[in-house]
């Protein structure tokens, strides 16, 4: 069952209405922490959390009142495209906070996230977050707001099915715990692997899937099996009550309504990169093929020299 695919970063693809990659961390009491300082859970924190009566809101950070709501958005009114960008904003905010930046303008945050500032302001307006003129956004509070919206102010138990190379790499990745995801169990059908220790976890047989989900109250299932086993594993996870699945198998899973699936296919990402690399290569002139000044469009053949130093046109003329 285990997959031998090698891990790599790749963007997820939604098979249903899945969520994107997320970053963030909360402690067991639901308090968001960054740099060891707890945020205030349940109320606004930070000196620029909201504009007071004497503050002037930055008109550039107001939502576009003429924009139409995304009818494909989430039940709470946040468009799916915005949800997919929130983890990117959170990652950029972490980078700013690590550099000791306490406030950030929308233009700077947008540049760090790789989007335009108008889109960022509109996205953050769905969270009720507005910048202050001359100040911008409070970084710590915005980290808390985005984390709360993404559901990262609590821990999420995760089970990994498939203890091959990819499953092992996922289990050993320390970033999950710091971002609110606890790997509660690893499962596999290979008796040679069952019982071995991976990342302080004892690999259990896949036959125990249902009991593992119930015991650990698993919220998210990660499928790191071969394509041939993935659908059966998915069906068992769904039947056990898991409604959020991260699928690394090269297969489009069939799931019932109400189940979110995020697909990460590394080969697809490589193929897309190959496409762009091929286009760049085709557009790039070959070494030595560039036309000299005043002679546009002349080919390499037209400039080729014979052994006696004459160009080919000269040689042809001499033979005529």
What is the element string, with H for helices and E for strands? EEEHEHHEHEHHEEEEHEHEEHH
Total beta strand runs = 13
What value does the average pLDDT take? Answer: 76
Q: Strand order across the biggest sheet?
A: 1-13-12-11-6-7-10
Share of helix, binned: 25-40%
User: How many domains in all?
Assistant: 2
| Largest sheet geometry | 7 strands, mixed
CATH topology (level 3) name of the largest domain: Arc Repressor Mutant, subunit A
- How much is the radius of gyration in Å? 27 Å
Apparent shape: globular
Say which CATH homologous superfamily of the largest domain is assigned: Winged helix-like DNA-binding domain superfamily/Winged helix DNA-binding domain
How far apart are the termini?
A: 74 Å
Write a structural description:
The protein is α/β, with parallel strands linked by helices and 320 residues long. The protein folds into two domains: 118 residues, Winged helix-like DNA-binding domain superfamily/Winged helix DNA-binding domain (Arc Repressor Mutant, subunit A); 115 residues, Rossmann fold (3-Layer(aba) Sandwich), CATH 3.40.50.720. The strands form four sheets. Strands 1-13-12-11-6-7-10 form a seven-stranded mixed sheet, with helices on both faces. Strand 2 and strand 3 form a beta hairpin. Helix 1 crosses helix 2 and helix 2 crosses helix 3.
């Amino acid at each position: 069952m285990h997959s031998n695919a090698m891990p790599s970063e790749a963007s997820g693809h939604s098979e249903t209405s899945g969520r994107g990659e997320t970053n963030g961390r909360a402690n067991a009491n639901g308090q968001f922490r960054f740099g060891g300082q707890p945020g205030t859970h349940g109320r606004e924190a930070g000196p620029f959390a909201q504009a007071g009566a004497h503050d002037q809101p930055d008109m550039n950070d107001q939502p576009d009142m003429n924009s139409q709501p995304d009818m494909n958005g989430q039940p709470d009114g946040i468009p799916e495209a915005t949800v997919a960008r929130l983890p990117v904003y959170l990652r950029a905010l972490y980078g700013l906070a690590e550099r000791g930046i306490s406030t950030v303008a929308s233009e700077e945050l947008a540049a760090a996230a790789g989007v335009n500032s108008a889109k960022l302001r509109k996205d953050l307006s769905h969270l009720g977050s507005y910048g202050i003129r001359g100040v911008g956004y409070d970084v710590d509070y915005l980290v808390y707001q985005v984390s709360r919206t993404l559901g990262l102010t609590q821990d999420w138990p995760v089970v990994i099915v498939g203890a091959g190379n990819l499953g092992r790499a996922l289990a050993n990745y320390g970033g999950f715990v710091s971002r609110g995801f606890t790997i509660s169990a690893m499962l596999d059908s290979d008796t040679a692997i069952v019982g071995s220790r991976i990342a302080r976890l004892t690999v259990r047989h896949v036959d125990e899937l249902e009991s593992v989900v119930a015991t650990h109250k698993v919220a998210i299932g990660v499928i790191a099996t071969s394509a041939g086993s993935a659908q059966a594993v998915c069906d068992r996870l769904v039947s056990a009550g898991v409604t959020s699945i991260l699928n690394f198998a090269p297969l489009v899973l069939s799931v019932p309504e109400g189940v979110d699936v995020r697909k990460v296919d590394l080969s697809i990402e490589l193929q897309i990169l190959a496409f762009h690399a091929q286009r760049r290569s085709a557009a790039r002139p070959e070494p030595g093929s560039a036309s000299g000044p005043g002679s546009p469009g002349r080919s390499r053949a037209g400039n080729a020299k014979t052994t006696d130093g004459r160009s080919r046109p000269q040689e042809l003329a001499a033979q005529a």
